[in-house]
Amino acid sequence: MGMSVTISAATEADTEQILKLQYLCYQSEAQLYGDYSIEPLTQSLDSVRAELAGGTVLVARLGDEVVASVRGTVDADGTARIDKLIVHPRMQRHGLGGRLLAAVESALTSPGAAKRIELFTGHRSEHNLRLYRKHGYMAVSTRRVDDRLTLITLAKDVEAVAAAPAAGAFVASA
Fold this sequence. Notes:
Blueprint: E1 5-9, H1 15-25, H2 27-33, H3 39-42, H4 45-54, E2 56-62, E3 65-74, E4 79-87, H5 96-108, E5 116-122, H6 126-134, E6 138-144, E7 150-157, H7 158-163, E8 170-171
Parallel strand pairs: 1-8, 4-5
Antiparallel strand pairs: 1-2, 2-3, 3-4, 5-7, 6-7
Helix pairs in contact: 1-4
């Protein structure tokens, strides 16, 4: 009998698993850009705890194991920012990233929360760009960081989120 993946709000107890998964998932990005000093690989456990306390952090679980995660915040201007969407390499290419993206969009755009959603990725991160475009994001700006990396910011309006089919399986928890 197989187990199904469930999506829920992260808890303090998930912090270490999230950081370890983040370290694993960002190895391919570091290799792609030839830079192992990127923030996701150098972030501290305390910093992840602070993000958990100050924003929306969701996890996908397979049993007790955290196999995916995503973070988001909404600023005073009503712009939601999605960050660090990660999926364990063995769980990729099964739609989990899309489910998690839809779940965090839903959480961040509750009535009156956000008007627009933004996220970013590197210019060589074709899988990320494909996922975001598939979910209605459009490139709105680029910023050259250095010779190896240009960040692409993608965005969509909240109306696009409301029109999208429900992702299902998101369970809010305290």
